[in-house]
From TrEMBL:
GO molecular function, one term: diguanylate cyclase activity
Stated name of the protein: diguanylate cyclase
Entry EC number(s): 2.7.7.65
Enzyme class (EC, first level): transferase
GO biological process entries: cell adhesion involved in single-species biofilm formation; negative regulation of bacterial-type flagellum-dependent cell motility
Residues of the GGDEF domain: 177-308
Protein location: Cell inner membrane
NCBIfam families documented for this protein: GGDEF
Pfam families attached to this UniProt entry: GGDEF
PROSITE patterns on file: GGDEF
């Protein structure tokens, strides 16, 4: 049987009205009491978290009492958020969620059977309860991300780095998986600043950060370690593989076309590469990567050095 798509837009202010007047006629003729009690239960459960993943899991679970669905997917491309719950179904109901001019994302509910009109009305009432917590979760996520991000390059900042390093070292030890670190430092960056100005230096930092990010898998993590230094954490990556990745980053930056006033400015980086030993902690790992980086600089720059 062919699937169907039913699309709707849910606006925050409309939803607010809906919450203020929950006994809408079209819903009342169905099962007003039970729907209202499901909604109240949902509202109180949604107050327990500011995490979008958790909110949608609660919504998915509570929605089943009002209208069985097989899958829920949420996507908010501008904030790079995508959450999938359950199995896919051939029929779907889509909702574009907004608050005034703020876009809150797209919600798609799927199941094997077609959605009835009365079911859509129940779903819409419950989505109304989801919008306030969803807006708060997006604000919380945004605040959290800015607190952990370097404003200039969009990479993780030192706070994020310290937290992640500790977590990844613990995970690597628990699962007995390799963990590698790359310390990357731009060569002769002071000259670039002195010759072309601080703003061009900032541009170069952004270009290098982007080149590092695009040389990696999504799960690898990039942090701004200092002024013109970056740290990359490579989960489940052996020493040999880390060396290969380091070399790829070096080449990608070496071949960057970085221009100031239509003049080509050569950019290169030196890299120190280290893999976690079983008896060391995160700062030991970084220290060995730093020593290797120092060696790469001493050996003439624009190269990778592997820690012992
Ligand atoms: N434009 C810009 N420059 C920065 C920033 N943070 C640090 N720097 C500069 O980065 C330069 C680092 O210089 P050095 O540590 O001497 O290193 P280098 O010139 O890259 O030399 P080597 O690392 O030995 O190749 C300094 O001039 C800092 O002022 C920043 O956010 N923006």
């Amino acid at each position: 049987m062919a699937g169907s798509v039913q699309s709707n837009t849910i606006d925050f202010d409309t939803a607010r009205l809906q919450i203020a007047q929950p006994r809408r006629r079209r819903v009342q003729s169905q099962t007003p009491r039970s729907l209202e009690s499901i909604r109240q239960q949902l509202v109180s459960m949604l107050q327990t978290s500011l995490e979008m993943e958790r909110l949608l899991a609660i919504f998915f679970q509570e929605l089943q009492h009002a209208c069985p669905i097989d899958a829920l997917s949420y996507q908010n491309a501008p904030v790079e958020l995508r959450i999938e719950l359950g199995q896919r179904g051939s029929h779907s109901a889509s909702y574009r969620l907004t608050h005034e001019s703020q876009y809150l994302g797209e919600l798609v509910l799927r199941r094997q059977q077609r959605f009835e009109e009365a079911e859509l009305a129940r779903i819409e009432t419950l989505i109304g309860a989801l919008l306030f917590p969803m807006r708060n979760a997006l604000m919380y996520r945004d605040a959290l991300r800015s607190a952990l991000r370097d404003g200039l390059t969009g990479t993780g900042n030192r706070v994020a780095m310290d937290k992640t390093l500790e977590r990844e070292v613990a995970m690597a030890k628990r699962h007995q998986q390799p963990l590698s670190a790359l310390l990357i430092d731009i060569d002769h960056f002071k000259n670039l600043n002195d010759q072309w100005g601080h703003q061009s230096g900032d541009e170069a930092l952004r270009s290098v950060a982007n080149a590092i990010k695009s040389s990696l898998r999504n799960i690898d993590m990039v942090f701004r370690y200092g002024g013109e230094e970056f740290l990359v954490l490579l989960t489940n990556t052996s020493r040999q593989d880390a060396l290969m990745i380091a070399e790829r980053i070096r080449q990608n930056i070496d071949s960057l076309q970085f221009r100031v006033n239509s003049q080509n400015i050569p950019l290169s980086v030196s890299l120190g590469c280290a893999s976690l030993h079983s008896d060391e902690n995160g700062s030991d790992l970084i220290q060995r990567a730093d020593q290797a980086l120092y060696q790469a600089k001493r050996n003439g720059r624009n190269q990778v050095s592997l820690a012992v």
